[in-house]
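User: Sequence in, structure out. Go.
Assistant: Echoing your sequence, followed by the structure tokens.
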Amino acid sequence: MMGIAQAAAIMAVALLAVLPVRGHASTRPEIPVTTLGAHTLLVQIDHEGVSPAVTSRIDTQASGSSLLTLVAGFASNSAAPADTYGNTWKQIGDAAVYNGYDGRFNAKAYVALAGHGGPRHTVTLVKGSVPEGEITIPFIEIKNAGKLQDVARNYPTPGLISRAADKLARTWQGKSADPTRMELTSGSVTTTGPATLVAVWLGDAYVYSMTAVPDDGFKVIDSYLQLPPNSAVQCAVATRQVTTAGTYNVTWKGTPAQGAILWLFAFQSDQPKQ
């Protein structure tokens, strides 16, 4: 027969066999994933604008988000944006001047990295020169984004056909536009890992009804493409989540053919401290 001591040893071994093995817990912090947060689009139509221009209220994170806004309208309304939570807005590059309007209109982009936020968050723009003028202001939160990894801006125009065909062509701001060339491709951005991409399309033609559709997984989140008779600044904003490092761009297909100021932003998280 089995002795008491031997039986106890066998039971102890069996118990150890069913107990879970505990490894060493990882002390390396995880990198938070950036995602699209709250967003809105303010549009004031021409001759009916007011100053200050104030976006709708959105609820943003108290901390940990980067904030992006663009201002498109009269160049003489040159003030920088302000917001409810006193963030410092940095202009990204120079203003882009619209073609065909004698320099009267431009568009600018601003970012507040690692911004402060909270409920009822708005962006405000004082229109010191032309308070009644048209203006368009997208306002986008990118959660868990500590840095603007890359940005591209370009200003493509539709393909032009020969002057010999002028009488048969549609006039586009004094030029002859080929209606079969309706695709405009942005510049490229390069990421080092997961990122939130934000694409902005700002058309330049004096038209009232249009389309602007991005490709390659971008989804439109805000747009203003059906304009009133007294005009406004047309705009579309789209985003895409990417999970790997790479180089990305976006092609916008629209009707009718027109040029557009195109921005593409790549937001990433900060690397955690080791």
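User: And one key feature?
Assistant: The chain has one domain: 32-268.
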